[in-house]
Design brief:
The chain crosses the membrane at residues 95-114. Pfam families: GreA_GreB. This is Transcription elongation factor GreAB. Keywords: Elongation factor, Membrane, Protein biosynthesis, Transmembrane, Transmembrane helix. It comes from Mucilaginibacter hurinus. The protein has 132 residues and is an alpha/beta fold. It has one domain: Chitinase A, domain 3 (Roll). Helices cover 24% and strands 31% of the residues. The protein has three helices and seven strands. The strands form two sheets. Strands 5-4-3-7-6 form a five-stranded mixed β-sheet. Strands 1-2 form a two-stranded parallel sheet. The longest helix has 13 residues, at 16-28. It is globular.
Length: 132
C-alpha cells in the first residue's frame, strides 16, 4: 500500500447497500490509484449498519453536506442523492460522484483527503443534514 494514503482513525459508517455500491465502484476501476487504495482501506475498516441506525451526522445518500476546502477556506454544499436522481442544476450530486465517494460514511467534523480532478484536496465536513 502507498504510504501517502492515510485513512481516518475512525472507521466510516455505511449501510450494507452503500458498502456494496462502493465495492462495485472499486471493481469497475474508475477511481485513481490513490483513491482506489484509500477506499479499499476504508472499506476494510468500515462499520456496516442498517439505514435506520445511521447517525444523523454521518454522510450518506439523501443528505446535504457542507465541506470546507482546507487550503482555500471555500465552502461548498452538496445534496447527495442516488445515482439516478443526480441533477447538477438542482445541486444534486450522485453519491458516486468524486465528492460523494470522498465523504460517504464520514461524520460531521471529519477531515477528508481525496484526489479530485484538480489534485489531492483536504476537506473538513462542517455540516451534515437530511434533505427535505
Amino acid at each position: 500500500m502507498n504510504s501517502d494514503v492515510k485513512i481516518s482513525d475512525t472507521p466510516i459508517i455505511l449501510t450494507t447497500g452503500m458498502y456494496d455500491l462502493l465495492k462495485e465502484e472499486l471493481r469497475k476501476r474508475r477511481l485513481s490509484k490513490y483513491n482506489e487504495e484509500k477506499l479499499t482501506q476504508e472499506l476494510k475498516n468500515a462499520n456496516q449498519v442498517l439505514s435506520k441506525d445511521i447517525p444523523e451526522t454521518i454522510v450518506t445518500v439523501n443528505k446535504s453536506v457542507t465541506v470546507k476546502d482546507v487550503e482555500t477556506a471555500e465552502e461548498f454544499n452538496y445534496k447527495l442523492v442516488a445515482p439516478g436522481k443526480a441533477r447538477r442544476k438542482n445541486n444534486n450530486h450522485s453519491i458516486l460522484s468524486p465528492i460523494g465517494v470522498a465523504v460517504i460514511g464520514y461524520a460531521q467534523g471529519a477531515l477528508v483527503v481525496w484526489e479530485m480532478p484538480e489534485g489531492v484536496k483536504a476537506f473538513k465536513i462542517t455540516e451534515v443534514k437530511y434533505l427535505k
